[in-house]
Amino acid sequence: MKLNNKSIFSRILFFAIFSGSFLNFEIKPANADFASLKPCKESPAFKKRLTASVKKLENRLKLYTPGSKEAEFLIKEVEATKTRFARYENSSLLCGKEGLPRIIATGQWDHANEFIIPGLIFLYITGWIGWVGRKYVRYASTTKNAFENEIIINVPVALSIMNSGFLWPLDAWKEFTTGDLLASDDDITVSPR
Amino acid sequence: MNDFLKYLSTAPVLMTAWLSITTTFILAMNFIYPDALTFPGF
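Above: the input entities. Below: the structure tokens describing the complete assembly.
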């Protein structure tokens, strides 16, 4: 099947609309769509877990002389446990029946900080890495000694390419519209069939 | 000196240095802000 720019564009558009239709803009209570989940703040099992974890640490604390290195560490651990539970309690996290917080990955905006935002940051960073890598390889191919430039990195050039990559989605789009992003079909080798 | 710089620029050496920076960064982030289950600030 031959893919030209137009058909690729329509595919991207289709996926954008398709995935966009899963986004839910309605404002509802945090657990409206998840009958079996409730906010961690209201979950008795979640509170039970807090007391159980603190108790476990305090029981261990009894084994050590007060003021010793181990006791200091355990006191810090108790504090960290309390802060952790307080943070989960004050967020929009939903807990299951067993009292453990769940990440909602359905694309709802009221849970965007659990999956959508970290996911977008992930895509942005991996895209950056890929984009500047591609740019460097393309730069290396223009030099006299292309193969060596891929093994012995030209650090100043690589650094300037890395720093220039933060607008990669725009750059990629620009290259896509000018036809520089994709190789033409004639440049792709196909094994005889 | 030039040869040494060239050695430092080889891919395996750069890779080791760069991954050390990355791991240090991730360790530091998890030390400063532990147990991040959700993206903070919301």
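Note for the figure: The two ends of chain B are 51 Å apart (CA to CA).
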